[in-house]
Amino acid sequence: MFGEFIKRLTAPQPARLPDADARLALTALLVRVARSDGYYAEAEKAQIDAAMSQRYGLDGPAMEELRAQAEVLEAEAPDTVRFTRAIKDAVGYEDRLGVIEALWGVVLADGERAKEEDALLRLVSSLLGVEDMDSNLARKRVEASL
């Protein structure tokens, strides 16, 4: 289903993604983090929907379609590095901090911080070029808002 999209993500020198593709890659990354502990909770799905709705102004049916596509893409995509490279190339540092906040929101949505989620978030933060201190501050902002 997403063969061409995955091919573009895995190209040696991928082109900058159009906004719709960057949105899909970001949502798939959120899904990947949510699934990383082996349990994809309804609270995590709701947090993904809320983050993408806030970020892109999507409503119920449009958000549900985006998340459904992202779930398929996440299952078909080979690795996390391609997602993060596409997102890093598509957005500036300040916006990447927003991505990290959205990822922490998903990790914390079910009330548990699984070691698999923590490990993946550390990797993703590094691959996005976000400093550890900035990621930690993003986590604290999310925790304060819960």
Automatic annotation (TrEMBL):
Q: Which CDD domains match?
A: terB_like_2 (cd07313)
Domain Co-chaperone DjlA N-terminal, residue spans: 23-139
Q: Which InterPro entries match?
A: DjlA_N, TerB-like
Entry protein name: TerB family tellurite resistance protein
